[in-house]
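// run 5 | inverse folding | seed 20
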């Protein structure tokens, strides 16, 4: 076991997969000599050279399209978005090409492609650098979507994503790169379609993902001190959603709170509510509570930025509101 930062866990995953398979390569802006904006590709250029750690121009649509073409020929590209918000410039390539080509070619092509990078609300990064694109991409057929949340799952999930024969959108939160955790010395992989039950409980199922995992844990730590017993599920897989794990939990707790950094309108929480109502309506004692970011561009002002996202106090209040209904 060795303690690693999340950015280094991601780097180790890429390094191991590049060493294992010469078809794996990385492309993106400033990933070579500079080592990436968050140092996920630090020192890899010196090890693998220009053709496998490929610095690109500022042209997301072009290099994403190139990566899709490379995947069609049998290579396994990893696209780093310097900020995932910039990949809106490549939305056409991701939706019309990456997501569809396996189907529209009648299965003649597979697209073993990973698109990864930082996103989410940081600390005063401004509206254009603070977007949460998971709901944008969730509607695209043919994609898998993963949101890592710990150094351990970041490494295991990225290794699995690189080996998957489908296009995977891999979300990393900009504020989680400096998390540290002990990682196994042996090689390991984690499934791309499974949620994690972070804490087992009996009263309310709290569903979350990415950075909000830690806001939920803070809230639950305080609730446990008061004698409550919540259950926490980290979705991890945003597409497909691991609805089986959620159903099992809801049948036990009969109440659900969703905590997300995504926007409320059309967000991941909206899809979760639909699936929970489809599968667990008769098991619910109360309507699902959804705690989401406000439907506005993220302000640059620090206090206003903080006010747009959910914090532990709001989670505690919502939990106690649900518990009051049981009395």
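// decoded
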């Amino acid at each position: 076991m060795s303690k690693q930062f999340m950015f280094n866990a991601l780097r180790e995953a890429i390094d191991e997969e590049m060493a294992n398979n010469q078809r794996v390569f990385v492309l993106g802006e400033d990933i070579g000599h500079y080592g990436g904006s968050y140092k996920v590709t630090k020192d890899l250029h010196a090890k693998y050279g220009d053709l496998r750690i490929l610095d690109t121009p500022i042209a997301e649509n072009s290099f994403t399209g190139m990566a899709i073409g490379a995947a069609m020929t049998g290579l396994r590209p990893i696209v780093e978005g310097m900020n995932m918000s910039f990949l809106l410039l490549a939305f056409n390539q991701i939706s019309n090409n990456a997501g569809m080509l396996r189907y529209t070619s009648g299965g003649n092509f597979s697209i073993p492609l990973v698109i990864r990078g930082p996103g989410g609300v940081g600390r005063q990064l401004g509206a254009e650098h603070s977007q949460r694109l998971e709901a944008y991409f969730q509607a695209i057929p043919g994609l898998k979507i993963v949101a890592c949340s710990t150094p351990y799952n970041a490494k295991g999930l990225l290794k699995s994503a690189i080996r998957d024969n489908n296009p995977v959108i891999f979300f990393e939160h900009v504020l989680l790169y400096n998390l540290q955790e002990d990682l196994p010395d042996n090689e390991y992989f984690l499934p791309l379609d499974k949620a994690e039950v972070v804490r087992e409980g009996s009263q309310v199922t709290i569903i979350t993902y990415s950075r909000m995992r830690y806001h939920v844990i803070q809230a639950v730590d305080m609730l446990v001190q008061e004698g409550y017993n919540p259950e926490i599920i980290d979705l991890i897989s945003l597409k497909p959603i691991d609805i089986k794990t959620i159903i099992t939990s809801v049948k036990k707790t009969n109440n659900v709170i969703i905590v997300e950094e995504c926007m409320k309108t059309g967000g991941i929480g909206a899809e979760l509510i639909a699936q929970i109502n489809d599968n667990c309506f008769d098991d619910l004692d109360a309507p699902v509570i959804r705690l989401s970011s406000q439907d506005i561009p993220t302000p640059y002002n620090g206090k206003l930025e903080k006010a747009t996202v959910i914090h532990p106090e709001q989670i505690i209040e919502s939990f106690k509101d649900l518990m009051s209904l049981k009395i």
